[in-house]
Amino acid sequence: MKSKISIYIVFVTIFLSSCGNDFLTLTPKDTVTESGFFITEEDANSALAGVYATLQDEAAFANVRNAADIEWAITGDLYEMDRSANRIELHSLRFPANNTILRDVYSRAYMGISRANVVLERIPQMNIDQAVKDLILGQALFIRGLYYYNLVHFFGGVPLVTTELTASDDLQIPRATADEIWDQVEKDFLAAADMLPEAWVNDADLGRATRTAAWGFLVKAYLWREKWDDAITYSERIINTGRHALIQTGFRDIFREENENNEEILFSTQFSTQTGEQNNLVARTAPRGAPSIYTGPSAWSNFVPNHQLVDAFEVNKDNSIRDDRYSVIMGPGEIHPENGYQLPEVPPAGMTRTGYIVTKYWYMPPVQGSGINAPILRYSEVLLNYAEALNEKGQSQKAMELVNQIRLRAKLDAKPVTLSKSQVLDAIFDERRLEFIWEPTGSFNDLNRRGRFLDFIKKNRPDYGELEVDKKPWLHTTPILFPIPTDAWTKNKALEQNPHYTF
After folding, report:
1. Is residue 476 exposed (0-12), middle (13-18) or buried (19+ Cβ within 10 Å)?
2. What three-state secondary structure class fits 13?
3. pTM over 0.85
4. What are residue 335's phi and psi, to 5 degrees?
5. For residue 269, what pLDDT is reported?
6. Fewer Cβ neighbours under 10 Å: the N or C end of the chain?
7. Cα torsion 244, 279, 438, 64: sign
8. What pLDDT, on a 0 to 100 scale, did the predictor assign at position 28?
9. Which residues contact 49 (CB under 8 A, 6 or more apart)?
10. What's the rounded mean pLDDT across residues 338-362?
11. Is residue 143 within 8 Å of residue 464, measured between CB atoms?
């Protein structure tokens, strides 16, 4: 039986309900009074649960907007089946400021930041045990850092808000610089790491932020800023704890619901059918039109692998795919290893327009809402991040040894450890691409931070010529940034737009 963070629904829906649509949100004053809340330890934990609850939104860290809509579909490795206007805009690399997907990513980040700020401001004033305070504050700092990390690598500099806002505050807040946001991200994760445990003792606490998760995101931030030495230091701290390892029983086992919060997972968004906190990952994965005995109701197969992704897997002499990571993908005529469903030799176009299905989150007939977690940071990424930093510091052999750990787990042969620096970097990105399909890493933004995105799509997207890259100047900035959403500007006229975009 998997354990989940308990969400206090009453608090979430009452005290924090008005945080949903504002970009810089105010604390609701008309539902719960200050004198009636933030009194007991239970109040403090309820407030923290409201912060965690923001991660479950599909526009936050539920592996839909960040992972599928943006990371993987923009690179072209996932095909969006429904061809909705807002998705087509992103996938064709147009990025208008009124795109609702970008709007939702931006707004949900500030929802999480707002809730975290309330906790960070109110909890220190409470008359409860200091050790309890520190644990709660560490988790709130971690989640605030997570949201600012998301904002800065998508949008660059954004308004920096680290206090609880009230109706008397000036909400016309200009953008901070990207460096100022990155500094805040680093500050939040460092402070969080000092307050958080390496692991939680009680099963009921599994899934909460930990010190190693904070270090892991700190490393990701250092890679963006090319602080290679710092990235090495904190990667080694994670590894030296001995708390994490690659799952060796099979790639699919990482994502099984009964195996969640395993030793490979540093952080994931928690879901549960038992507490009413379900997600749509299985529904978005399972093939629409398949018998419900295999899929349950409302299977959508929204995002399916494109041929160029499948072709990237290494094959045997008979052209059969040898990479164990392909086990989370099904092609024409192939049989699901757990539920026995066989994909038709010629799948209906409504099921998959490419002939393939991602099965990473689908293995048993789902209910409408699934309890499977959404992985955000895994140990395999820690190893690849560590390898990238080592490679930049002239330790290419050691870096390649780490890459080979990922390859051997995938049942592939090790590559030579004598590769050049550029060849090692290529090998790292090859593994990112196959390791993290439909996870919020390893694709657009990792390519973007190294200036590799345009080269990647030129090589891998068959529709590259149709994209008219030369006519889209925003694609030629370093890094590529999304526009500040129009809806944000309507509420905050102090915002300035990123280059080459208009509100």
Report:
1. exposed
2. helix
3. yes
4. -110, 130
5. 98
6. N
7. negative
8. 35
9. 5, 6, 7, 8, 11, 12
10. 96
11. no
